[in-house]
Amino acid sequence: MTARIRGVVLDADGGPVPGARVALEAGPVPLPDIALLTGADGTFELDLPSPGEYVVAVHGDAASARARLTAPTEHVLELRLGRAGPQV
Q: Which residues contact 56 (CB under 8 A, 6 or more apart)?
């Protein structure tokens, strides 16, 4: 493991979103099509295979969000799913 992304997915009101789908959408190396679901508290952790720039995509209840980050450090993200559209 080179780096880790830890985060939480929140709804428009700031509450946790359990069961949201989180995936690496793009990265510096080919990535397997693997997604995970957030826990009951809306949290998730993803290990990154190599240094570089990544895009994390989150989908839940008709809303989505994306974040771009650069590894190799541990990142903590807060992704908020907005009512009118995605917010990061």
A: 5, 7, 22, 23, 24, 25, 46, 66, 67, 69, 77, 79
